[in-house]
Design brief:
The protein has 80 residues and is an alpha+beta fold. The chain contains one helix and five strands. It has one domain.
């Protein structure tokens, strides 16, 4: 039996580009959200993976460790 996953776009899926305050500077941040996964690239050298939980919280699940404040800011930029 084939396990069919939901591949239809989820709310707020897409690519986001904005400035983020990181390590004392404003730097470019690119975020790609697909389903419950968020891929983050800050200043082309910091890469991280985030996961959106069922309750709406966002946690870091891989990549370069980011401060909670950066994760919170990215969540606010995507979900408002």
């Amino acid at each position: 039996m084939i396990d069919e996953k939901d591949t239809s776009p989820a709310a707020k899926d897409g690519k986001y580009e904005f400035e983020i305050h990181y390590s004392g500077r404003e730097v470019p941040c690119t975020v790609v959200k697909e389903q419950d996964k968020i891929t983050v690239c800050i200043e082309d050298n910091i890469k991280a993976e985030l996961t959106v939980l069922a309750d709406g919280n966002v946690i870091q699940t891989g990549g370069t460790d980011m401060p909670d404040s950066a994760v919170d800011y990215i969540k606010k930029r995507i979900f408002g």
